[in-house]
Structures are given as C-alpha cells and as structure tokens.
C-alpha cells in the first residue's frame, strides 16, 4: 500500500461509523443539535471500550479475537450471529442504495444493482478496499461542509428520548474498526478521532436543512460502508481458510442477483433478521468484555449492554407476525448451531 497506514486506518474507521455523509444525508434532517450531543455521549462507552481493547491487542480477527481470548465458550455464538448479520448486509444494502436512496426502478435499477455488486466484487477481489475508502473519505468531507445550506427553524434544545437513542445506534458499525488490525498499533487512535470528527460534523450540520442532493450523494457513503463490512468479513474468514475471499464474493453476487426477483421484499426480509443478529452478537461481545475488564470499567460495559438491549428491543417487529417470527427463528436457529456442532464434533 502506497498510502500511510494511519491514513488508511482512519479512513476505514471514518467510513465505518456510517459514514458521516450517510449520517448527515439520510438521518439528520429531524435531529436537533442537543439530540446529536446526547447521542454521542450515550454511545461513547462503546467507542471507548473498543479503543481500550484495541490497545490490548489488535489483529484481523477484530471482535472475534477478543471473545475467543476472554470467553472461548461464547466465541462461536458471537461469530455465527455476527457473520449472518453482516453477510446479509452486503446484498440488501445494494438494494437500499438503488431502490430507496436513488429511488430507481426498471431496467436502469437492475443494471445499476449489477454494476454496484460487480464494482464491490472487483475492489474486494483486488484487496483495494482501504485505498477506495481513503478517496471516499475525502469526497465525503467535501460534501458535508454546509456551504449554501439553509438554517433549520428548530429549537436546538428540543429533544426526544427515542431520537437520541436511535441516533446513538446509527454509530454501531464503528465496532468494525478492530477488523482492520494487522498485529501492530499503527493508527490505533483513528477510532477516537473518527468518532470525534464525525460528532463535530453532525453537530454543525444539525443546525441546517440538508439539501436533497446530499441525500442522493450519500449513496457513496453507503457504498463505502459495504466495503468496510466486506473487508471485516474477509478478515475474520481468512483465519479459517485462504480461499474464503472468492467464496464470499461469489455468495455476495449470488444473493444480490437473487434479490432482483423482488428487491423490496428482499430488503425487508433480510434487514430485519440482520439487525436482530447484529444486536445479539454485540450483546454477546460486551457480556464477554464486561466480564473480563477491570472493575472500574465495568460500568461502561453495563452501559453499553443497556444501549444494545434497547437496540435489540427496538429492532423487534412487534406489529408484524411474520417478521417477528422470522426474528425469533433467527435467534433460535443460529443459537443452536454451536450446540449441535459441539455434540457432533467433540
């Protein structure tokens, strides 16, 4: 890699948090400055604990490495829920870009879906995710500077607890930063810098009405986040097989093409179990972490678990019998896989 690793790690962390262009373009319109500040404070324990663990050791296995070290019996549970969540994310987010952000349909939507999947596959196959994310970071920063934006007519001190907690959960993918590790600590402060800079940008932009064009351009940020997810999945799978990259790419392309049968239904019926599995995996991770860290940090662990428990609860589709059943079955089926595996092979 020709670029300085610190810059590449920072761009990875910067993109993982949303990235910022997506946070501003897709979610900030109805959020007040006070709610932004509180959301950053509430999520701060998760960011700090991830940074704390990265200072202990930091390798490509990311969160999985920590669970293996601290509570090995929970490691397979974490891995299966986490992998299931982020693998589904890859394909349904392509549909989200095409059919929801850009609001396209017909032949052009099919061609763009295939084009996005193909572009991601090529970047991933060539192992050029970090370089792309660096370029994407620069563009995101340029687009989220509020030049010629109009001030919002809103009370900056108005707040909604639901808005605050929901906004906090938007930062959840910053937990992927550990997966860019390579055994040394170069660029380790990137997660804190990315969090603080993103927070400052969101606070500034929350005083303005976000132009429609920024919403459309935010598809670049969402595209970049797919690459962050792909890189993280590749990193974990490389611990088990050298051929995992090509299989992952083929599976991604296959699922994305299958989604074209009915992209709207595919999106709904994959994002719901994906979010459920994500929160379960992170709850497992923070249980493992909280049991293992120093006593003076355990309060941060319990605070993190509280936010994730809210995330899991808010993800439950209580108004839809079929989606709720899908979520329950997801938890049950993935939960019993390690038990069956242990019975068969040990």
Automatic annotation (TrEMBL):
Transmembrane annotation, as ranges: 7-28, 34-53, 74-92, 104-125, 132-149, 161-181, 188-207, 213-233, 245-261, 267-287, 299-316, 322-340
Keywords: Membrane, Transmembrane, Transmembrane helix
Official protein name in the record: Uncharacterized protein
Provenance organism: Saccharolobus islandicus (strain REY15A) (Sulfolobus islandicus)
Taxonomic path: Archaea, Thermoproteota, Thermoprotei, Sulfolobales, Sulfolobaceae
